[in-house]
Amino acid sequence: MAVANLRWLLLIVSLPSSSATARIRIWRALKGLGCMALRDGAYLLPAGTDNAHRLRELADECIREGGSAWLMNVEGQSAEDTAAYRELFNRSLDYADLRKSWKEASKSITSMSALELTRLQRRLQREFDATRAIDFFPAESRLEADTAWGEFNKRLQALLSPGEPHETDGAIPLLDVSDYQGRTWATRRHLWVDRVASAWLIRRFIDHDARFRWLADPLECPKTALGFDFDGAAFTHVGNRVTFETLMASFGLEDDPALARIGVIVHSLDLGGDSVPEASGFEAMLAGARERLPDDDALLSEISGLLDSLYMHFQRGKPAGETT
């Protein structure tokens, strides 16, 4: 859209001095929407259906609190005016602050526990997502922040899951599950998302009598064992698939919609990308369990129950967050 053609929403509000709590609540809501104050009580936002709906709700709330509110469509009288309005929404300083916070956080991450790392990662991701959500006119600073966050997030993931396998190429052959019964399966110790979910998948759907070896060094994997989720393993990342998804494809499990939804959780936590509502909860419970439990056998047992419950929930076919 050309600068001269931009349209804006202007919300002018006034609240009684006695409504201090409502004043703070509405101010926080306006800030969360990305509004910019032209003066006290006058807030500007780029026009759009969603923005208009949200501002209308805030205007109605002001009126319910005994105040007044006017929501108007406005436009700049010249291209210079419109450019000046647009510049109000320049988020380069916000991104600079975020990058500064990531740099500061990086000084202490090597001494953090898995639970602390997970909490830090979720908090910083929420802050970054909130800034991107109100970046109505993305510029170079957004691209720079995306790159910086990707690099920092990789460091966090490397600490949470050291030795993460590299992507491999090639087709995934369909295997006969009967050839993989009663086997020993091996992966890196200190299980994290992809490994613990893959171990659950193996024992639950592929090899009910599977035995597991947790390796301090993947090079120590016994020749008779089936390795998974490390470089050179029999089952690892292939293309854009994480190990969990590779195992699903290898044993013809991709048509199970409940397993596919768990795969989305594992993929989003392991490789990033679009998140799903259940992912942060699963990650938090796994991080807490890993801190609390003494070894990987106990961790697998605990998280297997959680994954069994998620699988049953997804089998019911309800969208995430829906209740009866």
The shape, in one word, is elongated
User: Which stretches are low in confidence, meaning pLDDT under 50 for 5 or more residues running?
Assistant: 319-324
* Mean pLDDT, all residues: 90
The helicity comes to 40-55%
Structure summarized in a few sentences:
This protein is of the alpha/beta class and 324 residues long. The protein is 52% helix and 11% strand.
Describe the structure.
Residues 319-324 have low confidence and may be disordered. The chain is elongated, with a radius of gyration of 25 Å. Helix 4 runs parallel beside helix 6 (140-160). A hairpin with a 2-residue loop joins strand 2 (36-39) and strand 3. 52% of the residues lie in helices and 11% in strands. 27% of the residues are buried. It has a four-stranded antiparallel beta sheet with strand order 2-3-1-4, with helices on one face. The protein has a three-stranded parallel beta sheet with strand order 6-5-7, with no helix packed on it. It is built from eleven helices and seven strands. The protein starts with 7 loop residues before the first strand and ends in a 9-residue tail after the last helix. By secondary structure, it is of the alpha/beta class.
What is the element layout, followed by pairings?
Elements: E1 8-14, H1 20-33, E2 36-39, E3 42-46, H2 49-64, E4 68-74, H3 79-87, H4 92-105, H5 114-133, H6 140-160, E5 184-188, H7 193-206, E6 211-215, E7 226-227, H8 243-250, H9 257-271, H10 277-292, H11 296-315
Parallel strand pairs: 5-6, 5-7
Antiparallel strand pairs: 1-3, 1-4, 2-3
Helix pairs in contact: 1-2, 4-5, 4-6, 5-6, 5-10, 7-8, 7-11, 9-10, 9-11, 10-11
